[in-house]
């Protein structure tokens, strides 16, 4: 079971964009190569804007060479860095997409975004829903649903209400780590941290969305939940094949059938839990009792949303809200384990803000600047959505002094931008302090926008942040961990300084994951360790 989970985690981390199949296609088909020099790229001062034809261009053969022979097919984020060196901040790739690869151009396009911003065609997702008469969610039918979903999710004060629920899940994560460590051959190792964090994230987001627990952190995952996890993996892992294969192959090759079966599993599981909630609400309404609840209850009691739309929205929120959070947590822990001084600073902050043996609350973690900076810096270095897209659909647009017709696809090179040394000196170093508001000059806000920007930005941002703050602060808090790991207490007591203590915690917790990280990075596109940080 663990192996299957690990495999599915690996498959999921291969996604480049959040559920946005067409945009993912762009990533794969976008060009690389060409011989033009970077100096031709920007020409803002001209009277008449130049056009896309004037941009450095990448041919299909160059793309193929880079992907296959230079091995960029699974290091696409590094390709952004490489291409920027070759072509400068703006260039034309395959399928006529235009890559924007500087903080200035990123800001320019996002500030010109439309009222209903578009990331691209979602027909791969809508097709299944249309076939089965199912409802859409925020990815597939944005404008009608987003306003409703924003409520109770978007504002930091909204997320605080989920603090108690998330903390229960964090407690179970810690118990599970304790259990796994105790039962490991050496008595202190967790052998598949990414798997545990995936389970944690799924349990966390489910407990908010379904207002009930689904057992991901139990010793044995309930069969229905395991099927659901497998369905998510199945849907994602077959998406790419379904997207690139012509439709006539669907009855001949296995991918389409598997892809559809994946969606069926997802909707079946989500539908069951939603129906259960609906019944409970109905019973209370019939008895004239007050209806209580948070997210799902709010959506279900909202007369502007049909139950079909609730099904569609919950399914899409679930898909977007699991590996994003778990991978970021994984990277944050990995980075802390490599930078003991940062770990020590974090440990001290948590100890200072939270009385010993108390669980940090949602309000308390919001007052921990270093904790927030750690997450921000981890997301800068390893953004889970390292590349995104925008299409200006309504009108022509001028970007960087170039004129583009409407419907031009722009690829946003977030990974390269967030590693630009002009914005982030020593970009390959983990330096959470660059985000502190302590009088130092702060980086350009568009330098790292891991949750996107504007009205189309991540709807789950506040919940994701809260989940990460609550879990990281408790893993960092020596009291909690030593309390949890009673058998290991003497090791902690033997350690001479806080740093050593917390290092030990991280070491035991994270060290076995290094192999996982490396195997993920070697076999898939992202996340990936830059060479200078390889373990
Ligand atoms: C570390 C965690 C996360 C990161 C880094 C992240 C990042 C992103 C990014 C970059 C986008 C695209 C924004 C844009 O195009 O401007 C996005 C969209 C989205 N995210 Fe997240 N996300 C995270 C967690 C979550 C969670 C926990 C949920 C669900 C509760 C969620 C739900 C969504 C949804 C529904 C969208 C589509 C929004 C729309 O199209 O209007 N995300 N996310």
UniProtKB/TrEMBL annotation:
Cofactor(s) it depends on: heme
Annotated GO MF terms: heme binding; iron ion binding; monooxygenase activity; oxidoreductase activity, acting on paired donors, with incorporation or reduction of molecular oxygen
A cellular component annotation (GO) from this entry: mitochondrial inner membrane
Sequence positions that bind heme: 458
GO biological process, one term: cellular response to peptide hormone stimulus
UniProtKB keywords: Heme, Iron, Metal-binding, Monooxygenase, Oxidoreductase
Similarity-based family: Belongs to the cytochrome P450 family.
This protein's name: Cytochrome P450, family 27, subfamily A, polypeptide 1, gene 2
The organism of origin for this protein: Myripristis murdjan (pinecone soldierfish)
């Amino acid at each position: 079971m663990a192996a299957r989970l690990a495999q599915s985690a690996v498959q999921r981390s291969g996604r480049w964009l959040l559920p946005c199949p067409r945009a993912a296609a762009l990533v794969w088909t976008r060009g690389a190569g060409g011989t033009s020099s970077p100096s031709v790229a920007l020409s803002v001062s001209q009277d008449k804007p130049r056009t896309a034809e004037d941009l450095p261009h990448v041919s299909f053969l160059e793309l193929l060479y880079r992907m296959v022979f230079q091995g960029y097919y699974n290091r696409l984020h590094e390709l952004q860095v490489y291409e920027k060196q070759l072509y400068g901040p703006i260039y034309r790739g395959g399928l006529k997409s235009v890559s924007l690869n500087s903080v200035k151009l990123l800001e320019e396009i996002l500030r010109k975004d439309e009222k209903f911003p578009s990331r691209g065609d979602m027909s791969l997702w809508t097709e299944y829903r249309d076939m089965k008469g199912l409802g859409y969610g925020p990815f597939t039918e944005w404008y009608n649903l987003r306003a409703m979903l924003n409520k109770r999710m978007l504002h930091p004060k909204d997320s605080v209400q989920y603090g108690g629920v998330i903390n229960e899940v964090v407690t179970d994560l810690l118990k599970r780590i304790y259990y796994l460590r105790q039962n490991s051959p050496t008595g202190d190792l967790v052998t598949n941290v990414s798997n545990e964090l995936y389970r944690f994230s799924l349990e966390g987001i489910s407990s908010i969305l379904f207002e009930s627990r689904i057992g991901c952190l139990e010793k044995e995952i309930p069969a229905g939940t395991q099927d659901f996890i497998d369905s998510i993996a199945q849907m994602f892992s077959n998406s790419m094949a379904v997207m690139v294969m012509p439709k006539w192959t669907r009855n001949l090759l296995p991918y389409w059938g598997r892809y559809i079966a994946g969606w069926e599993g997802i909707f079946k599981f989500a539908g069951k839990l939603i129906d259960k909630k609906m019944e409970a609400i109905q019973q209370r309404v019939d008895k004239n009792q007050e209806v209580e609840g948070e997210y799902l209850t709010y959506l279900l009691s909202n007369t502007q949303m049909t139950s079909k739309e609730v099904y569609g929205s919950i399914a899409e929120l679930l898909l977007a809200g699991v590996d994003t959070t778990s991978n970021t947590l994984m990277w944050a822990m990995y980075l802390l384990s490599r930078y003991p001084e940062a770990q020590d600073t974090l440990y001290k902050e948590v100890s200072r803000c939270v009385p010993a043996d108390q669980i940090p609350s949602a309000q308390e973690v919001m007052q921990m600047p270093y904790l927030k900076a750690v997450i921000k810096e981890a997301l800068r270095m390893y953004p889970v959505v390292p590349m995104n897209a925008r299409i200006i659909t309504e009108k022509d647009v001028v970007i960087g002094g170039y004129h583009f017709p409407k419907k031009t696809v722009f690829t946003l090179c977030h990974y390269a931008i967030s590693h630009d040394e002009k914005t982030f000196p020593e970009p390959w170093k983990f330096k959470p302090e660059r985000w502190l508001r302590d009088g130092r000059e702060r980086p350009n806000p568009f330098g790292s926008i891991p949750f996107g920007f504007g009205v189309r930005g991540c709807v789950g941002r506040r919940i994701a942040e809260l989940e990460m703050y609550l879990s990281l602060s408790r893993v960092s808090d020596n009291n909690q961990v030593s309390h949890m790991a009673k058998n290991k207490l003497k090791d902690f007591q033997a350690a001479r300084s806080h740093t050593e203590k917390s290092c030990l915690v991280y070491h035991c917790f994270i060290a076995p994951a290094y192999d996982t990280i490396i195997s993920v990075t070697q076999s898939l596109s992202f996340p990936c360790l830059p060479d200078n940080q390889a373990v």
